[in-house]
Amino acid sequence: MGIIEDAHRSLIAEVGLCYVATASSDGEPNVSPKGSIMVLDDDHLAFADIMSPGSRANLEQNARVAIYVCRPEKFQGFQFKGSVELSQDGPVYDRLAAAIKEKGLKLPPIQNAVKIKVEAVRGLGA
Q1: 3-class secondary structure, 124
Q2: Residues with Cβ within 8 Å of residue 119, at least 6 apart in sequence
Q3: What's this model's pTM, rounded to 2 decimal places?
Q4: DSSP of 24-88, one letter per residue?
Q5: Which helix (H) or strand (E) holds 23?
Q6: What is the pLDDT of residues 9-23, one digit of tens each?
Q7: Mean local confidence (pLDDT), 13-41
Q8: What is the distance between the terminal CA atoms of the chain, rounded to a whole angstrom?
Q9: Class of domain 6-123
C-alpha cells in the first residue's frame, strides 16, 4: 500500500488543478498553478512543465516540492510533499502529453515531465 490513497486520487481527478510550490537553492520561493496533475501510482504524482521557467529553474536547483490540491468551497484539500525527477521523454512524458491532447488543449510542447515521489501527505487544516 502506497502513500496516495483513494481520497487523494478522487480529489485530484475531480479538481484537475494544483498549485506547485518550489524554492531555489538560496530559498527564493515560487508558486505556479498546474492543470495537468495526475496520479501515476500509489507513490507518485506527475505534472507537465509547459510554460514555467521559474518553477523549472527552481526544480533544477532544488528537487523538493510541495503540491496543493483543494476544493475550497467544500473545505477539502491535500498537500503532497516530495522530490522530483524531470524528464524530456519517456513513459511519464508520453502519458502527460496524451492526457493534455485528450482534453483538447492547444498548448505549447511540454518542456519536462515532472514526476514526484510523494513522501508526505497532509489534509486541509492538519
Answers
A1: coil
A2: 3, 81, 82, 83
A3: 0.93
A4: -TT--EEEEEES--EEEETTEEEEEESS-HHHHHHHHH--EEEEEEEEGGGTEEEEEEEEEEEES
A5: strand 18-23
A6: 999 999 989 999 999
A7: 94
A8: 22
A9: mainly beta
